[in-house]
Amino acid sequence: MKRLALEKENSATIGFVVSCVFASAIDLPELRAWADHVLVTTDSCPVYIVDLSTFDDSLFHILRVIGFVPGSGLDEEEEIALVGIAFARGREQFEPKPTKQQALAALAAHPDILLRFHDTFPFINVQRDSSTRPK
Fold first, then answer.
1. Which of 37, 48, 58 is nearest to 8 (CA)?
2. To bridge 82 with a disulfide, which of 14, 23, 93, 100 should be the other Cys (CB 3.0-4.6 Å)?
3. Considering only CA atoms, which of 69, 63, 97 is closest in space to residue 83?
4. Closest Cα partner for 134 from 86, 83, 100?
5. What is the reported pLDDT for 105?
6. Which stretches of the chain score pLDDT less than 50?
7. Nearest to 89 by CA among 23, 38, 31, 15
8. What pLDDT is stored for residue 33 in this prediction?
9. What are the φ and ψ backbone dihedral angles of 7, each rounded to 5 degrees?
10. Are 72 and 12 in contact (CB under 8 A)?
11. Which of helix, strand or coil describes residue 70?
């Protein structure tokens, strides 16, 4: 069983997941699927994971459920790369800042973010076809 960073003192995993939600790289059903995945694949996890497995509230309540503000360890360019994953998945942004081209360029410049995404969400397949690559 793998060990995840889900505690306040070491919150990189849950911080990455929350960043993915806010970047629209994943949606609420996928957040719940991730929580279910954690419950099945880890020896022990915080109680909030059970709460996230049924979470169906406004996104701004997610930090209340978790009980602390997790840190993702991502810099600004890596956060933009998460938006690139959202675009690569066909998820348009309400007010795209960064632009689709900027986000996809950041994703191309940070392939480690896509690898981390695949490692964190092994049940989600991200295809980058020619229409989602930066021009």
1. 48
2. 23
3. 97
4. 100
5. 97
6. 129-135
7. 23
8. 97
9. -95, 160
10. yes
11. coil
- The rounded radius of gyration (Å) of the Cα atoms in the chain is 15
Amino acid in the structure at residue 63: L
Could you tell me how many residues make up the chain? 135
How does pLDDT run across 71-100, given as a tens digit for each residue?
A: 999 999 999 999 999 999 998 777 768 999
Distances in Å between the Cα of 52 and the Cα atoms of 2, 8, 17, 111 are 19, 16, 11, 28
At 39, which helix (H) or strand (E)? helix 28-41
Cα gap 53→55, rounded to integer Å:
6
* pLDDT at site 92: 79
Q: Tokens for 70?
A: 């997790």
Measured between alpha carbons, how far is 29 from 19 in angstroms, rounded to an integer? 15
Q: Which of 122, 120, 118, 132 is nearest to 90 (CA)?
A: 132
Cβ proximity of 70 and 7 under 8 Å: no
pTM: 0.90
- Which residues touch 119 (CB under 8 Å, ≥6 apart)? none
Q: What is the pLDDT of residue 130?
A: 40
CB proximity list for 54: less than 8 A, separation 6 or greater = 32
